[in-house]
Every structure is written in C-alpha cells, then in structure tokens.
Amino acid sequence: MWLELYLGVTLLLIVECKPLTNGKHNKLLVISFDGFRWDYDQDVDTPNMDKLVKDGVKAKYITPPAITMTSPSHFTTITGRWIEDHGVVHNMMFNSTTHKKSSHRVTMKTSEWWDNGALPLWITAQNQGLKTGSFYFPGGGANYSGQSVNRVLVEEPGQPNENETQWRENIDTVLSWFTEDDMDFVTLYYGEPDRVGHAKGPDTPDRKNIIKQIDRTIGYLRESIQRVGLSQRLNVIITSDHGMTTIKKKPLVDEIVLSKYVNLFNLVYFELLDYGGFGMITPRKGKEQEVYESLMKAPNLTVYKKENLPENFHLSKNDRIQPIIVIADLGFNLNSRLIVYVNKGDHGFNMDEMDMKTIFRAFGPDFKNNYLSEAFDSIHIYPLMCKLLRITPAPHNGSLSITEGMLVQNGGKTNQMSIGVLASIFVYILFM
Ligand SMILES: [Zn+2]
Question: Separation of 243 CA from ligand 1 center, angstroms?
C-alpha cells in the first residue's frame, strides 16, 4: 500500500508540476510609451496603473542600454542584444564616410539601418510558426534578411501622436489583430510622454497631464481586453525606452559649447553632436589625441576613446561607434557650435542616472498578481517574451533567471498548489 501511495503522490506531483511550457502559449502584447521615466506615476493620480500593481507585476524600475535613445533602446528590447551586437547605435542613421545623416522617422523604413544580423523577436517568432505584428514600434518597418513582420504600421514623418481618441483606436486595431487575425505577438508604440518631456520638460503640468492620459489609455486597454474576451489568453507588458531629465540652461549653468574647446573645422572629420546628452566624433587623421585632450578640458562632459569605453556599456565592438564618445553630465546638452537647442527635457545621458531609468509593468494569465520585481536591465525582457510565447530564443544577452520569478509557473499558483496537495497527502498518510 505504501508503494501505491508513493506512486499516487508522485503521479499527482507530476500532474500538478507539469511545466506550463506544454500546450499552446498565450498571446503577448508589448506596449512602449516612449520616454516614460520610472517615477512619472508617483506625482500624478493614476488609478489604472495603481490597479495594475495589484493585478500584475511591477518592477521598481528598469535600466536601458548605454545609449539611452529611442531606436538603440527599443532594438535592445526586441532583440535581447546589446547595442554593439545589434548595431542600431543612434536615432539618426549616418554614414561617417559620406557624412549623410537621416532623421529618426526616416530610418523607420530603412532596412540597412536595422538589419545587422540580430533578429528581432517578430521574425524569430514567425520562423517558429507564430503570427506577429508591429504598430509603430521602432524597427518593425524594416526587412531582416529579406523577411518582414506579418503586419506592420510605420509612423510617418510629421505624424501627430498625442491624440487620445486615436490612441484608443490603435488599441482597438491591435486587439482585432489578435481576435480576428489570430496573431500571437504584437508590439504597440506610443510617442508620449517623450514628446511632452522634450517640449515642456519632465517636471511640468503638461507632463503630468499626459501621464493621466496614458493612465486612462491603460484603463481603456484593460476594459477592451475584457470586452473582446482576451483576459484569459493575453499577456501584456508595458514598458519604455529611457527616462527624461530637465535641461539645465543659462543663467543657471554654463552650457556646453564644444567649439570653445576644440577646433571642429580643422580637427574633426565627422560628428554626431547637438542631440541630447550623447555624441560621437571622428577626428581627422592624426588628430585623434589632440581632439581627445581638448575635449577633456570641457566641463560637465565625460570623454571616452572607443577602446576605453566601460565594459558595461557594451558598445565598443561595433564599427558604427565612432572613435571618440562624449556623454554630458545629467541635464547638460551637447552643443557643437551655437546653443540653438530648444528642448526643455532630454535623454541620452548615462544609463545609471536615475532620471534615465524607465518602467516595466505586466499583467495577464501567466503573470503573478501583486508582484514587485527588483530593478533589472531592459535586455532581460527578451528571454521573458520568448518564454511567454514558448519559442526558442535567438542568441541573446539577456537572462530569464532575472525575470521568470514574475511568472505564475515559477513558485506561483501552480507550485503552491502542488505543495498543498503534497502536504494534504502527507497528513492523510500520517493519520491513516
Ligand atoms: Zn525614446
């Protein structure tokens, strides 16, 4: 009888502990609200985001990769690769030989900027039989080794992106991709609160208003998921690409004008400056040391030779990274010659500055309730998404061990139930 009991218990345990990796995966929606600083919901009334804390997972904050800009950071999220591996090293596409530069929006359909060998999750998932879509998400509009995302909408240059009614329609569209087209994985992108953060500054009533609008949109999303019957089948991750900080201006500070320290015309061959807190410079031949030493004299600026970049930046291996990298101190903008810079807020600063940290929230059938995760690097979102979709990840730099604790199957309801079953059988045996 002991043997029978033992077998019975074992069988029960096998049934209860069966990993959720068997059977069909749930669907996954990833939403990025561009430039959502980690603490933006702390000084605004956000009832829907507050409810999400109880109904899902919240990370204290997440850290973007070392170039805290939209395209580099989003592409790390969707590939799970460091910037030096995926090669999207700036918002602007550039060629340091021809000196051609293309704006952020123009790059959205330019495959040669994105297609550098690192496969984004849309393509990897499609190659394993899933259907995927991208709604305005950076990188979604490109071809990867000749393959494109099943369903793609790309933001056009000049397209406004703050209309709340339009935001709701975008949610309706994405949900219809799940319900009518049976898509498995969709990414959805919103250009706010980044736009307001730049235009008005992060510590303004305008920023608080857009956070309230985002909160209402999250409320609408949750109602809509319920309405279309996806509550039990759709996991949702809400995240972002970087934070935002107030730009320090005269007369409070001496703004950085790089031409005061280095003769850009005579010594510099190519530069990407005047773009927030991060810049790159290619000195003219033989002028490398002179440029480096001159820049070192500029205050409120950190200057790196490419070969001396800190290891944890994960940048130096890529050919697109120029020989000299400059990062301004938090809140200082890089101006090459004149101060023509109108932004009141910006990013691009060191990812270890708290103002550059951003958000991670998640809810759905595979996520625990009321789970507060420690802070983590955004690169670890990738293996989590693969786990949720039950696909084999492409080579990546993330680690599932960082994020899997937020899933129900890891120490969550399933295992607790197994322990409960085991305990009651043990008690039953004891008292038999
Ligand atoms: Zn951004």
Answer: 8
How far is CA 150 from each of CA 27, 129, 327, rounded to the nearest angstrom?
15, 11, 38
88 & 237 share domain: yes
Of 282, 311, 342, which one is at a domain's C-terminal end?
Answer: 342
* Ligand 1 center from residue 349 Cα (angstroms): 12
Residue 229 within any structural domain of the chain: yes
Report phi then psi at 360, rounded to 5: -145, 120
Given 46, 70, 77, 217, the catalytic residue: 70
Distance 172 CA to ligand 1 centre (A): 24
- pLDDT (average), residues 21-49: 92
Higher pLDDT, 98 or 418: 98
Are 106 and 42 contained in the same domain? yes
In the three-class reduction of DSSP (H, G, I as helix; E, B as strand; rest coil), residue 240 is classed as: coil
Expressed in angstroms and rounded, the spacing between residue 35 Cα and the centre of ligand 1 is: 5
Structural domain that includes position 224: 27-245+351-411
**Quick one: average pLDDT of 38-58?**
97
CB atoms within 10 A of CB 314: 20
Q: Is the pLDDT of residue 5 over 80?
A: no
Per-residue pLDDT averaged across 174-178, rounded? 98
Burial of 133 (0-12, 13-18, 19+ CB in 10 A): buried
Average pLDDT over residues 238-257: 93
Residue 287 shares a structural domain with residue 359: no
Distance 70 CA to ligand 1 centre (A): 3
- Is 97 part of the annotated catalytic residue set? no
CATH number, domain at 269? 3.30.1360.180
- Give the separation between CA 213 and CA 45, rounded to whole angstroms: 11
One domain for residues 317 and 237? no
The verdict on 102 and 191 lying in the same domain is yes
Q: pLDDT digits over 291-342, tens only?
A: 999 999 999 999 999 999 999 999 999 999 999 999 999 999 999 888 776 8
Are 267 and 179 contained in the same domain? no
Confidence (pLDDT) at 421 = 44
